[in-house]
Design goal:
It is built from 12 helices and 8 strands. By secondary structure, the protein is an alpha/beta fold. It has 2 domains: 202 residues, Aldolase class I (TIM Barrel, Alpha-Beta Barrel), CATH 3.20.20; 27 residues. It has an 8-stranded parallel barrel with strand order 1-2-3-4-5-6-7-8, surrounded by 7 helices. The radius of gyration is 29 Å and the shape is elongated. The relative contact order is 0.10. The C terminus is likely disordered. It binds SN-glycerol-3-phosphate (G3P). The site of SN-glycerol-3-phosphate has 10 residues, from helix 7.
């Protein structure tokens, strides 16, 4: 059971790393663009290296930017060589249902020792085949599954059952969070990892009633401090208190 953050924002990633709650980061071209990354592969490399160092030794998933079979193979190996905690994201198939992606996944895992996160999956069946091809991670886009009118909990349960039943090494990443409740629900349904948007993680931590409770503690601490000050002996009373004379006290002799 682990939390990854779905972000390319270094400040956000550092914030959660310092809290000790993060075990990995996932990105994709859409996230990187949203987090201000432009300028192509040279900029992707700079950002990737910065994130990989920030979270080392935890894994960072970076997605290939092509669906051409040969180019994917070359690019995936280049990405993986940037740092040893990099995992390469490959979609389960191409935009027109091209199936060579599965061969690429298999080749990368078995011939080139590249860890692959198979992504953009919407069903347990896709996850099972990706795991059989040798994927290290299978990413089920749970929020998108729900958006299509299906229940991602069923897909998660099925995926976990199948992976365990066939003793496949892949770990399930439940992705595409929409609500704070998703994280715990998806873990309970069998996800090994939930990759969370930063604002969802903030929302998991902050509770309005906790705020009110903490406010009360702080106010009462202040009140109690003020009460101590008020009950201290006033200066006028000190003046009538006995003054030490410096003479030795005389005790009766022991009997
Ligand atoms: O990790 C997958 C995720 O980035 C996709 O999320 O919100 O675009 O469905 P979303």
């Amino acid at each position: 059971m682990a939390i990854f953050v779905d972000s390319g924002n270094i400040a956000e990633i550092q914030k959660f790393m310092k809290m000790g709650i993060l075990r990995g980061v996932t990105t994709n071209p859409t996230i990187l663009l949203k987090d201000g990354l432009t300028g192509g592969m040279s900029e992707i490399k700079k950002r990737t290296l910065a994130i990989a160092e920030t979270i080392y030794p935890y894994p960072l998933s970076i997605e290939v930017t092509t669906n051409d079979k040969e180019k994917m193979l070359v690019q995936a190996r280049q990405l993986a060589a940037w740092a040893d905690n990099i995992v390469v994201k490959i979609t389960i198939h191409g935009p027109d249902g091209e199936l060579h992606n599965v061969e690429v996944i298999h080749t990368l895992e078995h011939q080139h020792n590249v860890r692959v996160n198979v992504t953009a999956m919407m069903s347990a069946q896709q996850c099972l085949l990706a795991a059989m091809a040798g994927a290290t991670y299978v990413s089920l886009f749970c929020g998108r599954v729900n958006n299509m009118g299906y229940n991602c909990i069923d897909e998660l349960k099925k995926t976990r059952k199948l992976l365990d039943q066939f003793n496949l090494k892949a770990k399930i990443i439940a992705a595409s969070t929409r609500e704070i409740l998703n994280v715990v629900e998806w873990w309970e349904a069998g996800a090994h990892i939930v990759t969370v948007l930063p604002n969802i993680l903030d929302g998991m931590l902050v509770h309005p009633y906790t705020k009110e409770t903490v406010r009360q503690f702080l106010q009462d601490a202040l009140k109690s401090e003020q009460l101590i000050v008020q009950t201290q002996v006033p200066a006028t009373l000190k003046e009538i208190a006995p003054v030490h004379t410096g003479k030795k006290d005389v005790f009766p002799a022991r009997l």
